[in-house]
Amino acid sequence: MHRKGRRERFDIIYEILNILSDGRIYKTMLAHRAKLDSRTINKYVDLLQRVNMITVEEEGKEKEEGRYILKITEKGRAFLNMYEELMRLLR
């Protein structure tokens, strides 16, 4: 049984990819817009990067900065289109 207001895994993935479809964004800003805590956003970013739906670039020359810019890939855009089509079919 799900807690009230709890989002499903694919809903979170869709929301992250949808936010990224507007353009590149910092990971911290993505977490804020998707309403996810840092542990959860890291989990989803790792997953989406591993399956090549997003790319993650470290900003700046100094690796200690810790600022990451995320960008959706063509595979991520394809997922968005398929998910939206599936949701239309289920309505």
Strand and helix map with partners:
Blueprint: H1 9-20, E1 25-26, H2 27-34, H3 38-50, E2 54-58, E3 68-72, H4 74-90
Antiparallel strand pairs: 1-3, 2-3
The CATH architecture assignment turns out to be Orthogonal Bundle
Spatially, the strands of the biggest sheet line up as: 1-3-2
Helix % is 40-55%
Q: What is the number of E strands?
A: 3
- N-C termini distance: 23 Å
CATH class: Mainly Alpha
- One letter per element, helices H and strands E, the order comes to HEHHEEH
Gross morphology: globular
- Which class of secondary structure composition applies to the elements? alpha+beta
Query: What's the number of helices?
Result: 4
Which homologous superfamily in CATH is the superfamily?
Winged helix-like DNA-binding domain superfamily/Winged helix DNA-binding domain
Largest sheet: 3 strands, antiparallel
Oligomeric state? single chain
General description of the model:
A 3-stranded antiparallel sheet has the order 1-3-2. The chain is of the alpha+beta class and 91 residues long. The protein starts with 8 loop residues before the first helix and ends with a helix. The mean pLDDT is 90. 55% of the residues lie in helices and 13% in strands.
